[in-house]
Amino acid sequence: MNSEQNSHQPRYRMPLLEFRNVTVVRGGRRVLDNLSVAIGEGENVAILGPNGAGKSSFIKTITRECYPVMQASGVIFRIRGQDAWHVFDLRSMLGIVSSDLQQAFTGDTTGRDVILSGFFSSIGLFYHDITAAMEQKTLDVARLLGIEHLQERPLAAMSTGEARRHLIGRALVNDPRALILDEPTGSLDLHALHTFRTTLRGIARSGTAVIMVTQNLHDIIPETSRVILMKDGRFVLDGPKEEILTDDAIGRLFEVPVHVREEGGWYYATGY
Fold first, then answer.
1. What is the pTM of this model?
2. Cβ atoms within 10 Å of 124's Cβ, excluding its own
3. Where is average pLDDT lowest: 10-19, 99-108, 154-163?
């Protein structure tokens, strides 16, 4: 795969996310290798790759948990054209949902508190000043996600899918321009997967962009227009969904013979 020949960099005056020459080293290994990408506002994008591709490190670089290595050629990492953001301002730009975040909450945290904590970028609530407007927004988001009946239930008593929808609610209370999801469908059964997919489609249609980071083709919602393939810390192929999700490209990405089929806007891999 040749990332230079197949690059699909959209031309936006000010991308929502912009990486240029970003290299990240963890444990003596390059987990991101000279990444360059621009994702425009309003774009629904999927970043697809196998385990160990660097997908989670990409997200942790966005959240500043990982920092790029400085290079002679210069390094750019910007959100809406800015190099530095206060965490409270960043919440209105990007809502990030990950398995690590879900594990950070204790089991006795209620659904209401999970969503409300999004206003403060905290894990649970402590001595926060909660306004009536925050309470109303929390209820509105819970209704949007179909979880209003779970607001007083502790996370430990919820299914994985129910807990994950609360994390999405935590991100949505700040009306972010984009929702970034890291491997969101792990441990979901068929019913939970269906509900989760329906939720994401509704979010994308409402105007909040969805950036899906995953190893599963079936996570890519029909509203996604662009797919970026990632392997060994690099973006190796980038373009319109219909051109990227092919037998050849996916077979090479995962190093297995595969048949990719499309059904109602969803993509599935079989034959491996």
1. 0.88
2. 16
3. 10-19
